[in-house]
Amino acid sequence: MNPQIQLNLALILFLPWYLILAALYWIYPRQPRTAGRQVFDAASLLLTVLASAASMHWSFLRADTSAGPIWKQVFATSVSYGVFLAAMTCAVLVRRWLVTGSRRRSPPSRAHSSTKATQ
Hints:
The chain has 119 residues and is mostly helical. It is built from 4 helices and no strands. The longest helix is centred in the C-terminal third of the chain and has 35 residues, at 71-105.
């Protein structure tokens, strides 16, 4: 097997699942969809993929081969997937915190405050 394919096999095999999770992260929640959120989401996805690929390479090169040659792939896939899920979870939590924090800081809208004044 080509050494480059062997080194990246975990990423190649999990790429469809990573794309599904990334699409769900990008799409939901649908609102608020601001430019800042899109930049944050794009940066989060890029960092997640880079962290996952780096952890895959690290674990592939450091796997114990005494359990057999397939162990390198199993270990690389497991570590890469764990890092991907951990990074996506952090991104979801930080995004929720940022969105919730910006809602608390925003002043009340004019329509809402004028409705109270007329009552």
